[in-house]
Model the fold of this input.
Amino acid sequence: MHCLWLEKQTLEFRKDEPVVKPGDREALVKVLLAGICSTDLELVRGYYPFTGIPGHEFVGEVVDSPGDSTWVGKRVVGEININCGECQLCQKGMIRHCENRKAVGIHDWNGAFAQYLVMPMRNLHMVPDQVPDEAAVFTEPLAAAYEILEQTSIEPGDRVIVIGAGRLGQLVASVLKLTGCQLQVVVRHQKPRAMLENLGIQTLTPDELDNLKFDIVVEATGSADGLSLACQHVRPRGRIILKSTYKGNVKVNFSKIVVDEVSLIGSRCGPFVPALELLSTGTVDPKVLIEATFPLERGLEAFELAGKPGVFKILLKP
Ligand SMILES: [Zn+2]
Ligand SMILES: [Zn+2]
Done:
């Protein structure tokens, strides 16, 4: 099959990677669309030493599921954390944090930038008919945005700022808006501003941030500078929610966090069920975030474009 292969921080297009036969509790999924996210770009930059097929945002169709043939022909999305079911964290129900976990397209499991991928059946969710592929492919990042609401309560009066109006920041803003909080998003460029304003979300330029303080600051810039900006604009006893992962360490003055008794909340993957619900009711429509769709053969070009500043979602169609 065709795929993109990552090894030693080099991505290449391969034509003859074998298709793996799924086990009893697994399904072979034909990839319909896959999305390139910042984590994929960071993988290529060496955020984590992964060798194999990247790609963890996808919608596909089950073509083989030896343990349960009723899934064949179903359109699915898949949760990316593959847990062992036995460790302490799994026993406690924290399956996304399993000590022995693999992660689709990130750690020890081949991902979706390919014609086919194998997924454990228990990670799959059927996609409702009314959700087109172009929306379903956003289930994983939308779930990651929704995770914030699972981790902390956001009330209608809360002053909330999202720093970063890119791919993830836009989804985060769409989800947070549902709480009725006083939401603003920091934007530098006209295009993301227009997209947010279309959704009725207020925007601020970095200059307008001035000395403003917020109850909750969500850092979704995808870069190391975001956290220090977040620290400057959180009120005492406020919360900073961290959504970015990147290579390397961040320099932050932690005394301010201690003195101001600020809570730092790391936030990664989220629940698929409410994300699919938001898509199927049309409450969130992520299709506007699609910048371009490339055939898999042009995957390297697609990655290059996805890494340019201000570019929204790039999809790959095997
Ligand atoms: Zn991602
Ligand atoms: Zn486990």
